[in-house]
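Recap from last week: sequence in, structure out.
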Amino acid sequence: MSANELNIVISRLESELSLKKRVIDQYREKAEAFAVQQENFKQQYDAFQKEKDLLEKTIQKINNITSNTENIVVLNIGGSTFATTVATLSSNESIFRPILSGQFCIQKTQSGEIFIDRDPRMFPLILNYLRGELDVLLMRYKELSYSEMLQFRKDSAFYATKIFHLQEVSIERNREEIDDYWSYDGKTDALEFEINKEATLTSITLFADDKFTAKMTIECDDAELYKERRAFKGDSNGRYVWDGLSLNLLPNKRYTIFAKLSGARSIGGDDCRAFVSSDSFVMKFYNYKGDSNNTTVSKGQFPNFTFQFDHFDPSNEEKI
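Predicted structure tokens:
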């Protein structure tokens, strides 16, 4: 290559190099401008973020004020008003949980009170339970009259609380069994008894070794509460449980039970208790004044009774 041709090549390369430098300079200027713009955007973003955080805090404060107001609930129970909170009404299982969640259709007064058409006298005790004031509830419950206790039990069930728990008790009357066989010959065994609290009689046990027919009758104040005839056979222990009963019995009332059995002889009870206590439940026995086929407080038929009753236990601790 001649010197002239070499100069032409060098000149062309220098032109291309000069052009690329100009392009690079243009890109550098744009990059610097973009960096400045990016910094501006970052500053604007940070400013907007601070404004957003401040706005969210302001909204939260407003919501807290609003929620505190909305958390107050006014109940109108049969014309009497009670102010409480959503938290209190939701604290324990009751009818108020589905009411507040909208599951139940409710009535409201013109002023927005939740209206429940119920006697309001026992409702302060319901509130004591919902507020967790169990010591206050227990003290006030002990001060109630018997009729008020019955009303409180009904209200507790109506408001679907768990202040009362269904408890079963078994009353075993006899301590021993008579080896000599108990004779019937169509006679009627009879016994009187009382209980200390309202309860449901669910079964009565009879001594019965073999096949029997029997007519069971229960009376109170000369009024017949129950009468049924059955044919049955005793179990290997010489007993038959007359179950399927559902008799609601009241406290301090004298009841008389009659059992007219026909069949073979059976064992009988001996050294029986006149007074049986199980937890808070008490059953007392009395001799029947008429013919009782020798069944008395101390011996004879009716070895066992079972009852169910509502046990007052607002702490929700099941009794054993």
